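Dear colleagues,

As part of the handover before I leave the project, I'm documenting each prediction I ran so the next person doesn't have to rerun anything. This entry is a single chain, and its sequence is reproduced below.
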Amino acid sequence: ANCETMATHCLHVWASFIKEQCAARDLAIIAHSAGGRCIAEIFAKHRVEFLQRVKCLIFTDAYYHAMFTQAGLTRQHLATLKSIGIHFKTFK
């Protein structure tokens, strides 16, 4: 599957299951590789709810930089993302 298809699927999962059916208020997300782009898409489309509910954001060798280049990010947004996120990356 390409990244666009994956992102579309992840947006559907967030809107249909996380937003509509998941009672949990505190979420932890783990994203590997291209999953980082999917998380960036969710963040772009559901920023307020994402920042309210996601308490732990773990990337494993993932591309997630698109989250930090989005329009409208405030210093508080960046501080929150830094406080909840960690990126485990392989070094060669």
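The longest strand covers residues 54-60. The mean pLDDT is 89.

All the best with the project,
I.
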